[in-house]
């Protein structure tokens, strides 16, 4: 049976697919091929996870040409080797993170761009280590594709100051109202708590 293709190449780099775009993933029995940017692949994986189809349905990806997609394709060594089982980085709001996540201050007139220069109060733990406790500028998160069930975290307290970098399985944040960006797409509301974690109970299968 041929793979089911999900053509999401029309998405802008800051636009997530709607539920309608990925609803029919539940009908796939054999293989999925996602065409489009990182957030398209993330949405399909999230839908497969929510419907308990991982790792039964292998996933292929034909990335877009934007920098985030090219970077993730390199990190995954896309197009080389055999089919692989990979870890899944999830959040506590049902999303999947593949390339880059960020928490930053909310309430800026300039939206995401304006928030980059503001600070907000946060307490954050990466596994057992407290990595933030007070005003910060942002927290950046990246899945670590060179490790098993790990994410890399960078806490920026002030611009041009040293960045605290850690690696581990789970990040938990309690904070003043903050904006969250997942793989280039702004989350639809402000948050005061957020968790990203590499779920060691789940794997997904990447077709090269």
Question: Any idea of the CATH topology of the largest domain?
Answer: Tumour Suppressor Smad4
Number of helices: 4
Structural shape: globular
Give the CATH level 1 class of the largest domain.
Answer: Mainly Beta
- The residue-averaged pLDDT reads 91
Can you count the beta strands? 14
Going by CATH, the architecture of the largest domain would be Sandwich
pLDDT below 50 for ≥5 consecutive residues: which ranges? none
Q: SSE order, as H and E?
A: EHEHEHEEEHEEEEEEEE
Give the proportion of residues in helices: 10-25%
Sheet of most strands: 14 strands, mixed
Sheet/helix structural class: mainly beta
How many structural domains in the coordinates?
2
Radius of gyration: 17 Å
How many angstroms does the end-to-end distance come to? 18 Å
User: Which percent band covers the strand fraction?
Assistant: 35-45%
**Assembly type of the shown chains?**
single chain
Can you describe what's shown?
The chain has 208 residues and is mostly beta strands. It has two domains: 4-89 and 203-207, no CATH class; 101-199, Tumour Suppressor Smad4, CATH 2.60.200. It is built from four helices and 14 strands. It has helices at 19-22, 38-50, 67-75, 111-115, and strands spanning 4-7, 32-36, 59-63, 84-91, 96-97, 101-105, 120-126, 129-136, 138-143, 151-156, 164-168, 170-182, 185-186, 191-207. Strands 1, 2, 3, 4, 5, 6, 7, 8, 9, 10, 11, 12, 13 and 14 form a 14-stranded mixed sheet that branches. The mean pLDDT is 91.
Looking at this protein, list some descriptive labels.
208 residues, mainly beta, Tumour Suppressor Smad4, 14-stranded mixed sheet, 14 strands, 15% helix
């Amino acid at each position: 049976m041929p793979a089911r293709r999900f053509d999401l190449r029309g998405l802008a780099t800051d636009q997530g697919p709607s539920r309608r775009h990925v609803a029919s993933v539940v009908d796939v029995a054999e293989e999925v091929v996602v065409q489009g940017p990182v957030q398209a692949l993330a949405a399909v994986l999230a839908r497969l996870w929510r419907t308990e189809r991982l790792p039964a349905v292998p996933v292929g990806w034909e990335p877009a040409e934007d920098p985030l997609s090219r970077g993730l394709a390199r990190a995954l060594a896309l197009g080389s080797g055999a089919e692989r089982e990979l870890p899944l980085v999830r959040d506590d709001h049902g999303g999947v993170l593949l390339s880059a996540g960020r928490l930053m201050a909310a309430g800026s007139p300039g939206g995401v761009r304006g928030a980059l220069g503001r600070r907000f109060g946060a307490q954050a733990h990466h596994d057992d280590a407290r990595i933030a406790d007070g005003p910060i500028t942002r927290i950046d998160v990246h899945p670590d594709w060179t490790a098993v069930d790990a994410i890399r975290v960078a806490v920026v307290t002030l611009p041009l100051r040293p960045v605290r970098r850690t690696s581990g399985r789970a990040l938990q944040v309690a904070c003043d109202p903050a904006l969250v960006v997942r793989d280039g797409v702004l989350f639809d509301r402000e948050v005061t708590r957020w968790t990203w974690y590499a779920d060691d109970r789940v794997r997904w299968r990447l077709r090269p």
